[in-house]
Structures are given as C-alpha cells and as structure tokens.
Amino acid sequence: MNHQERAVLIGIGELKPGSVCEYQWFEFVELVKAAGAIEVGRVIQIRDSPDPACFIGFGKAEYLAELVREKQADLVVSICGLTPVQIRNLEDRTGIRVIDRTDLILDIFARRARSKEGKLQVELAQLNCILPRLGGRNQYSRLGGGIGTRGPGETKLEADKRRIKRRITDLGRQLKTVAKHRSIQRHQREKREIPVISLVGYTNAGKSTLFNRLTGADVSAQDRLFDTLDPVSRRIRLPGGVEAVIIDTVGFVSNLPHQLVAAFKATLEETVRASLLLHVMDAGSPYLEQHFIAVQDTLKELNIHTKDVINIMNKADLIDDHHLMNRYLKNWSAIPVSAQKGTGIPELLAIIGRKYLLSEGSSC
C-alpha cells in the first residue's frame, strides 16, 4: 500500500458513553488504525437490526455514498459482519471496496505473519471467509491490493469454488504436518516432565514485553494490536530449580472471528496443552473489564477456561490511585507487575516456582 487508505466506518446502534457499543467502537477504530487506514468519516444508524439489503438502510446508504465522494474515501469498513448481498449493494452505491470487521482482522494478521506456518494459517482463514461470498463480490477474481485483499487477494483468486476448496484442503494438510511436528516436540517435553506455561491476554496488554522480561528474549513488543502473531517459546529456570517452557502467542480481541480460531488451532494447541496460563492484563486500559471478558470468551471457545491461571496486572506503575489498584487486584486475585520496568517480576517468578514445587511432577 503506497498510501494510507481513507476509510469511512459504518455501524448500527446507539453510541452512548460507557456503553458496550462505545467500547466496541473504540476497539474497532484501533483495528482500523492497525490495518494502516485513516478514518475520514463515520455513519452510524440507530436501529434494532441490520437492513438485509444495505446493512444501514437505503437512505443512510445514499448518505454514505455522498460522504465517500466528499471525503474521497478508498474504503468502507463495517463494524459488523456483512452478507454478500449487503457488500454488493454498498459497493454498487459507493463505487469503492466494502469490507467488514473480520476482513479487517484478517488483513492485520496477514501483515503480521512472518513464519511459513503463520502465512498458511492466515491464508486458510481468508479462503474460508471468501468461499461463502463468491458471487457476491467481484474483487476476488482480479488482482487486488489494499486492506481486505492482502494474502490470497494479492494473487489472482478465481471465482472457482472447486479450486478454493482444493487449496483449503492443501493448506489443511500442510498445517497438519506442522501440528505433527509440534506433537513430537510436545511428547519429548512430556517425557522429561517439563511444564509448559502459556501467556494469554488481550492484544497489546504487554504479553511480549513480559515474555522478554521473563526469558531474556528480544521478540518484537511494539505498542500496536497483534504485534505478536507467530508463537515463540523459550526455556526458563524458575526459583527452586524447576525448568519450564514459556510460550508467547497471538493476543485476543472481543468476538475473535471463528475462522481465525479454527485456522490457528495448531498454534493455539500449545496454549491448550499448557499446564499453566499467565493472563496478562493492562492495568492502564479504561476497558479492563471488557478485555477480561473477551479473553475469557476466547478461552471458553478453546475449552481451556478451567485451566490453572495466574492473573497478572501489568503496567501497574501507571495507576496512581491505590484504591483503584487494590480493587483490581482483589477482583481478579491478580499480581501487580511492570514488565517494562521489571517491578514485581521476582515475586511473580517465586509464585510460579512455588506452584510447581508444590505439585512436582505435573506434566504439560
């Protein structure tokens, strides 16, 4: 992309301060920024349910078309999922590409994927998203570019369901090979009874910074959504002499698209198999409670919400209100740390070490 794409955002629902809708929009705007777009306009309609034809209704769709022309927008992005019919009708009226939140997240993942496995997983998720839409959009049948078309959209993806299904099958086979390799590594750890600790949390909560602090690694830890996509693992020695493997992988968002959870099953398998989860929370976020719920929902989808977990209140140094911090720590039985400054890390390691010393011989 040679320039920042100019995006008009659309959605339905009343945007009240402190409401769930306000949080959803805050997260949505952050996703748009992470995809490399700049918001130039917004159209929100108060209605109980989406319009079957245009999502926001015919009148609002006409207003959207005028706004697109006025702002010289390149892209329309919907906060909700869109049907092929809604996409086609909105594209006909605006004359530009229309994508939804799932397309947006897939595009960010395509940008972040560095390993062969990560790229395979992103492509699989994109193709599973594209397949039901064939016939509804013509952009997939030509050379694409820009947000929502990265990955397989950059190749000439023909509107041929049989070819796409064959590619999906091929990707599935390749990812099974990766999963088999991981299984061998996991079996070796199990034989040696090396416990596995997995970092989980809302994206950009500081998981990678904490991972670096705990292991001495130097993985990317930029202040942006989904900075870490490919899993990274390192061995650490806990107080008491227990050796463990700690894993950092992709962060979560609310309503993580099912296609992504399914495609990244091989990567998330390490989290599923972990004996202990370290849930990293961002103490400085105004949406801390919503982030906690988003993570719990994803863990439930992975069927690991009952695993042993230590809640970690990262960026605790950013909270000057001691009463507020004490409430956070009490509500979630959390341990306060600053991964950036290193405060609280010895105490965290001691707690993890005691946990494994008390249950020596626990396997991953």
Report on this structure.
The chain has helices spanning 20-34, 58-71, 84-94, 101-112, 116-130, 161-191, 207-215, 258-263, 265-273, 288-301, 322-332, 345-358, and strands at residues 5-12, 37-45, 75-78, 97-100, 196-201, 232-237, 243-248, 276-282, 309-314, 335-336. With 364 residues, the chain is an alpha/beta fold. It has two domains: 5-154, Rossmann fold (3-Layer(aba) Sandwich); 192-358, Rossmann fold. The strands form two sheets. Strands 6-7-5-8-9-10 form a six-stranded mixed β-sheet, with helices on both faces. It has a four-stranded parallel β-sheet with strand order 2-1-3-4, sandwiched between helices.
Summarize the structure.
With 364 residues, the chain is an alpha/beta fold. The chain is built from twelve helices and ten strands. α1 packs across α4 and α6 runs parallel beside α9.
Outline the fold blueprint.
Blueprint: E1 5-12, H1 20-34, E2 37-45, H2 58-71, E3 75-78, H3 84-94, E4 97-100, H4 101-112, H5 116-130, H6 161-191, E5 196-201, H7 207-215, E6 232-237, E7 243-248, H8 258-263, H9 265-273, E8 276-282, H10 288-301, E9 309-314, H11 322-332, E10 335-336, H12 345-358
Parallel strand pairs: 1-2, 1-3, 3-4, 5-7, 5-8, 8-9, 9-10
Antiparallel strand pairs: 6-7
Helix pairs in contact: 1-4, 4-5, 5-6, 6-9
